[in-house]
Prior knowledge:
With 280 residues, the protein is mainly α. It has one domain (2-277). Helices cover 71% and strands 3% of the residues. The protein is built from 13 helices and two strands; from the N terminus they run H-H-E-E-H-H-H-H-H-H-H-H-H-H-H. It has helices spanning 2-13, 16-30, 59-70, 72-88, 91-97, 102-135, 141-144, 149-172, 175-199, 206-214, 218-225, 234-242, 254-277, and strands at 39-42, 45-48. It has a two-stranded antiparallel sheet.
Amino acid sequence: MLRLLTIEFHKLKYNRASKILSIIYFGLLTSIALIAAIKFEFGSFKLHLADAGIFNFPYIWHFNTYIAAILKFFLLLVIVSMMSNEYSYKTLKQNLIDGLSKKEFILSKFYTVIAFAAVSTVFVFVVSLVLGLIYSDYNELAIIVSDLEYLVAFFIKLVGFFSFGLFLGILVKRSAFAVGAMFVWLIFEGMFKGFLYWQFNDSENTGDKVDAIMQFLPLEAMSNLIKEPFSRLGAVKSFASQMGKNFMEKEVDFLTILIVSFWTFIFIFLSYRLLLKRDL
């Protein structure tokens, strides 16, 4: 494993675009801390986001992983360009000539995906912990370590998403087309969701029926791992209760973890099968 990772990071070391995108990504993750400085003033109404509770333990784990997950597209570009460069610079063929098997080649890419996801998760953990210790109103150990499952969900979400990008990179061989294919699939899932709403329009619990089907699609499943955190904020929940609405507490669902893990296996397996059948 270490040998395969060394090979991949040696390639990335000399890829300027990948280094720039990685720096931007981790820079943006760090910039989550800047949210603490944002203040809104509308006449006599003043709102300091850090005082609104977004950095309170354990809510911060949910909030920061949700925000950080939005930035995953920067590393997606690194993953797909990493794959397209293998074809453009013929390093894939050279690696195979040098004795690397196709299985080892796919594993090297998958290990890189896991490494990126793991580093991102640790990075978000450290940033969140520091912000929480500075701004949180609750610093008891039991409260700090609760809701850490959002970090697990964040890691699994990144691994699944990057594995999808890796598969598309191998399928179409060009990074721009691979990213385009990702957005086409996203649009397809959106259109399919709309079709389901139309199909079940006359039945009861339409939303529940649609969600029960959509949860098995890859991007929808990844999205379901970490649902929006904003309705958990005390201010929002207080306002909602006054309006007669109740928000359910968002939790990481174990079934969703299994679904995303299954899709991750499918993407890596299909990547390997493609490489086996393809004439390089």
